[in-house]
Amino acid sequence: MNDVIKAMKERRSIRRFKPEMPKKEDLEQIVEAGLYAANGMGRQAVITIAVTNKELRDKISEANRKIGGWKEGFDPFYGAPVILIVLAEKDWRNRVYDGSLCMGNMMLAAHSLGLGSIWIHRAKEEFETQEFSQLLEELGVEGEWEGIGHCAVGYIDGDAPKPADRKDGRVFWAE
Length: 175
Hints:
Elements: H1 3-10, H2 24-35, E1 46-51, H3 54-68, E2 82-89, H4 95-112, E3 116-120, H5 123-126, H6 130-138, E4 145-154
Antiparallel strand pairs: 1-2, 2-4, 3-4
Helix pairs in contact: 2-4
């Protein structure tokens, strides 16, 4: 089996991360993989905010927790030290699709580098707030953006989960 397909079959969502920060070179490769995701009409209308600053990471986690309605103290990013936030041009009709492909590429890249990842929602709701719109301004991001997802990344704490059996009856050949 080729390495790419093997990675697709083996990658799992991780819900327990070690606090150690991954190497910057690995994070750069993961982000770059996202930049090479397929995108509608070649528009490249997706950006990534790479959050490695613990204070900001914790602020985003708390906002996400509140939006999700979890009890105080819960970390929706499961302790991952890095959050890669994918946003897309708000008026682009393919924003969710393009952002989703970016997320998928980054999760596969993380796996290929021996890191764990998980897609966490609620980026849309976060970046509809003034607080996170202001963050974009502070980072020099211009324009109107919609949050697509968070790719939480870090070293796996424990073993990766085993895959669930695949359901039958999900492929129909029209030969």
